[in-house]
Amino acid sequence: MEDPAAGLFVLKAEVPVVVTGEEDHQAWLARYAVAPGGNWRVVVALTWCTITTGRYRGQYAIEVRLDGRRVGELTYLMSRRYAELMGAVIDAGGHPGCEAVVQVGERGHEIVVYLPRDPAGVVPPGCFAPPVRKRSRRPMWIAAGAVVVVFGIIGNLVDSRQSTTDSADPLSTAAARTTTTTPTTAVPPRTTTSTTAPTTTTATTTTTTTVEPAPPPQRQPEPQPQPQPQPQPQPQPQPQPQPQPQPQPPPPPQPRTEAPPPPAPDQGCHPSYTPCVPIADDVDCEGGSGDGPAYVRGPVTVIGPDVYRLDADNDREGCE
Question: Where does the sequence pass through the membrane (predicted)?
C-alpha cells in the first residue's frame, strides 16, 4: 500500500483547525467508513486555491487534498495565519502536508486538520545541491610529462650540435700547448730555485687573397618623361549627422507583493475563535440570554470546533 505521507513535509500536529466546504465532497469522504463518535486518522496534502464565494471571494486560501482529491479548504483567516509557513516550505522545494481526522458530524463527513501552534517556529526543509564531481588531475600530469619530454629532446639536439662543432675545430689551444722543463744547476753552498716556463706552440695559418675582376660599367638610365599632373579629386559632400535616438528609461520596478504576516497568537484565547474569545467554563454572547460566566461581543469567526455554541446557524459566524 502506498504511503500517503510519501513526498510530503508533514507539519507538527499541535492544534486542531476546522476545514470548510466538506459538504461538496461527501462522495469522496464517504470512502472512509467512520462510525458516529469515531474518527479515522489520515495524512493530507496542503496547496493553494482561490476562494470562489463569500466576502473573501478571489482571495487565496489553503486547500486540503486527501488521496490527491480536494476535500475542502481553510478559512481566510486561518489561511493568512499559515501563509508564510506554506510559502517557506514551497520555496525550499518541499510539499507541505499535515495530519488530519475524518469524522461524522452535523454536516455529514467532516475533516479536521492539525497544524503547528506557532507557524514561525517551524523550520522548512533544506535544499541540498548534488555533490560537485571532483576534476581528475590526470590531464595535468600528462601535460607536465609532455613538456618534460619536449625539453629533453631539445637538450639532446643542443648537446649533439655542440659535440659536432667541437670535433670540427682544426686546432685546440689546450692540445697545442707544450711544457718544457729547464734543468736547474746547484752550486754549493748557494741554492738556485728553478722556474718552469710553459712554451706555447701556435699554428700558422696561410691566407690566400683572391682579386675579384672589376665590375662592368653601369648603363646610364634613359630619361623618363615627366608625369602629367592629375586633377585634384572633388571632395564628396559629407552627409548631415542624424540625431541619435534618446534611450528609453527602464520601466519602474514593480512593487513586490508579500503575503501578510500571520496574526500573532493571543495568550489566553480559545484557538477555535477569532477575534479573541477567553477560555472559561462557558462563554455566551454579550447582550444575549446566556448566563456566562464569561461574555464576548460579536461578531466572532468560528475557526475550530464550536465549543461554546456561539454559532447557532452554523455559518461560521457567531454572536451576530
Answer: 140-158
Last residue of a domain, one of 103, 118, 133: 118
Within a domain: 314: yes
At 243, give phi and psi (nearest 5°): -65, 135
* Tens digit of each residue's pLDDT (9 = 90 or more) over 25-70: 999 999 998 888 889 999 999 999 999 999 999 999 999 999 999 9
User: Please, is 170 exposed, middle or buried when counting C-beta atoms within 10 Å of its C-beta (0-12, 13-18, 19+)?
Assistant: exposed
In the chain, the number of structural domains is 2
Query: pTM above 0.70?
Result: no
Q: Is residue 203 part of a domain?
A: no
What residues make up the domain containing 276?
Answer: 268-320
Which grid cell sits at 304? 475550530
Listing DSSP states for 99-168 in one string gives EEEEEEETTEEEEEEEE-S-GGGPPPPPP-PPPPPPPPSHHHHHHHHHHHHHHHHHHHHHHHHHHHHHHH
